[in-house]
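Human: Not sure, check this?
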Amino acid sequence: MRITVPEALAASHLRHEEDAGPAWTAALPALAGRFLDEWDLRPDGEPRHGIVALVLPVVRADGTRAALKLQPVTEETAGEAVALRAWAGDGSVLLLESDPHTGTMLLERLDGGRSLSAEPDVMRALEILTGLLRRLVRRPAPEGTRGLDEVARRMLDRVDPALARLPRERDRHWVRHCAGAVAELAAEPAPPGGDRLLHWDLHYDNVLAAEREPWLAIDPKPLAGDPGFELLPALWNRWDEVVATGDVARAVLRRFDLMVDGLGLDRRRAAGWTLGRVLQNCLWEAEGGEDELSEVMLAVAEALWVRW
């Protein structure tokens, strides 16, 4: 069976990897065919895809339903299989097979059509996500996992060029403040638990319904560091529900405090590292050509400053 690459996925590869993307897209059907043969898999439904990965529902020779995930090996994706192996299905999707050279993985089959975004009560969704995160960050990061200290240094090196691209003083103010928080935390000795295995992208759409457990995390971007760096995605996702409360700052802090208490984190450090995640997003925006920063990121920074 020859796999057809969805047009939207091919377009995404072109946007994100102008040089390598088309070549990887062209090679994808052959790569899928190779692992269908090598791992004795039978296609079992329509493929799904995200920004870079193609996921094929499959059935193993013993009748077990699984998912074949194919994606380019990049700095972000290279450690995914290592992290999933370390978690061994405790709060995360279970890794069944992997090929480190191509980044191909065979995963436990989850319900790709039902994420935690479907939970109508956002605070209940946040409790579920926090419970999964608490399990994930119990483990120290495997040796060789990219470190938060490196990510922090890289961010700070990019601040001055980003400031030069931002004409609004409000934007520059918050970039400087967030950078100051990162610089202060990076200069402090790492506390106990500062070497945890982080997911780095745990938001409601990266938690899927499952059979083995009600919900499991997918698509980690592994990082070694302080769990306080994990909180931002759940603070700004489902933003319309924050706005609907009529008090944005209070709603952001309610989410933040629930996660900090549920994870047993130091509130100040968690606020500082979350400001670091805001800085990361703002740097991406400035480097991507935006001359004004996201109002959502600025609102999160303003709300959290009282905790820092």
Observations:
- The chain has a mean pLDDT of 92.
- The domain at 7-109 is CATH 3.30.200.20 (Phosphorylase Kinase; domain 1).
